[in-house]
Structure formats: structure tokens, C-alpha cells
Amino acid sequence: MKPHDPRRGAQGAAQPSPLRAAPRRGVEAARPYVLTWIALLVLLAASVASAFVPLGIFNTVVNLGIALAKALLVAWFFMHLTHASLLTRVFAAAALFMLVLLFGLTASDYATRPAAPAPWSPP
Amino acid sequence: MTTLPYANAEEQRLAAEVGTWVFLATELMFFGPLLLGYAYGRSHHAQAFAEASRQTHVWLGTLNTALLLTSSLTMALAVRAAHADARRALPRLLSATAALGAAFLAVKGVEYRLEWRAGHLPDAGLFQFLYWVMTGAHSLHLAVAIALVVWLAAGVRRQSGDGNARRVEMTALYWHFVDIVWVFLFPIIYLVERHR
């Protein structure tokens, strides 16, 4: 039981309140977090090392692939997207969808039109 | 702790969680166009971008990435401590998180100083312009995140129970988001064409 805090006033829960939710998932193990962190650092090392090897277009593919893998590790394990509500996941997916629209529609323009630089534009 | 206007604490937590993610979605819309501008520049001025990227300080960038990834670990452990109501561990983990974030900003400051002296200013080219805007916006976000974490660490002993755990949890979501933004900025800034 936590010590009573006078500052919590009239609605402070001196005794267990039915409104207080039970902890969502007991005390979790710290191990998955540490393993995630180790994986992130290994991916960072792989990303930097691969950049010094000439792989052509695959330098970019590998680097962005590793960044995506790191982002998913953080979102999945640190941000608990696995435990998040369906509504939350819909919003996360909607944000990514908007980003895909932004890139897709813009790329469809730039990729299908020859660049015609203005005389004053930098090379 | 009152839960009005929510039916119960779980509903209140869900509202906070969804609200935070909606905020993060708008933040993605803020960084997205910058990344789009970068994609345009990289595809249309590949040589210039490769050349400019080689002049960035890749080892400082790598150090900063490691610092930020580690800060996400301490932040995630802080959320765990908050749920377990661990009064001693929580302020320590939050302080460690804020310190790692501050170390990132210090290294970034050293980099800015080096670039300023070398004349790699925002008007040097599209890459430099995007570099300063993207890293500047990211540093600003990180500074806000650090302020939130310091505020939590300072108030942690005075708060209690669920309300505090929720605050730590929502701040952590923002912290991890700022980390993820950097995870993408790192390769596109520092690793464009290192092998030449």
C-alpha cells in the first residue's frame, strides 16, 4: 500500500479505489528490452560498416532496410505497438498511409516529367 | 484520481494512448515533407548529395545514434519501473534518459560548430539546407522531450500511481518517436556514399 499523500485531497484514494485500474501486465522482465537494445546497436554497426563497402544501389537499399528494421524494433518493443489497442494501430497505420500517398503521388509526377531547370537554378 | 469524463481508468488510459498517437501522426506529417524534399534532391542531384554527405562527420553521427538508441532503452525501462511503481528506479532511469538526450545535443552542437567553421551552411546547397532544417527540427523536438522527462523526473516523488505511470508512458511514446526520426535521418545524412 502506498503512503497516504495529503496533497491528493478529498478524492485521494486512502483505500483502494475501484476506479484504479489494475496494472496492465504485472512486472515485466527487463530482458526483452535489453535484447532489443543490443539488436539495435548491432544493426547500427551493420549499417555503418556496409556504407564503406561499394554495393552500388544496394548501399541505399541496405541502409534504408536497416533503418526500417530499427524503427520497427523500437515501435514494437519499446512503444508496445504489439499491446496497443486496435484504434491506436489504425491511427499509426493511417499516418504511414498518408506518408505513402505523399511520396507516391509526388513521385508519380517527378518520375514522369523531364526536369527542366530554370536558368538560375543551381546544378 | 478522478477519471471523469471517462467511465473508468482503462478508458482514460486508452484516450491518452490514442491521443498521443494522433499527435505522433501529425508529427510524421511534419517530418514527411522534409524527407520527400530529400528524396527529390537525392534522385535529381545524386552526385552533389553524395559529395555533401561525405563531408558530414560520420563518427559523431554514429556516436549520436548509439546515444539515442540507448536513451530509448532507459526510457522503456522507466515505463516498466513506473508500472511497477518503483519509486527509486524511476527517477534514476528518467535522469539517465534526459542525460543521454543532453549528450546527443552536446555532440550535435560540436558538429554544428565544425560545419559552421567549414562553411557548410544552409545556403551551401540543397543537401546542406535539408541537413540544417531536418537536424534542427529534430534537435528542437529532442529538447522538448528532454524538458518533459526532466519535469517527470523532478515530480516523480510527488505524484503517485496510475496518473504518473500514464504520464511516463505517453512521454516515452514521444521520446521513441524522436528516436525513430533520427534512425531515418542517420543513414540519409551520413551514409549516402561513404565508400569513395
Question: What amount of the residues of chain B lies in strands?
Answer: under 5%
CATH class of chain B: Mainly Alpha
What's the end-to-end separation of chain B, in Å?
Answer: 61 Å
User: What's the tally of helices of chain B?
Assistant: 6
Instruction: From the alpha carbons, calculate the radius of gyration of chain B and give it in angstroms.
Output: 19 Å
Run of helices and strands of chain B: HHHHHH
Structural class of chain A: mainly alpha
Q: Output mean pLDDT of chain B.
A: 92
Calculate the mean pLDDT score of chain A and round it: 80
User: Level of helix content of chain A?
Assistant: 55-70%
Write up what this structure looks like:
The complex is a heterodimer of chains A (123) and B (196). Chain A is mainly α. Helices cover 55% and strands 0% of the residues of chain A. Chain A is built from three helices and no strands. In chain A, helix 1 packs antiparallel against helix 2 (57-78). Chain A is flat and about 65 Å long. Chain B has a single domain (9-190), classed as Up-down Bundle (Four Helix Bundle (Hemerythrin (Met), subunit A)), CATH 1.20.120.80. Chain B contains six helices and no strands. The radius of gyration of chain B is 19 Å and the shape is elongated. The N and C termini of chain B lie far apart (61 Å). At the A-B interface, helix 1, helix 2 and helix 3 of A face helix 1, helix 3 and helix 6 of B.
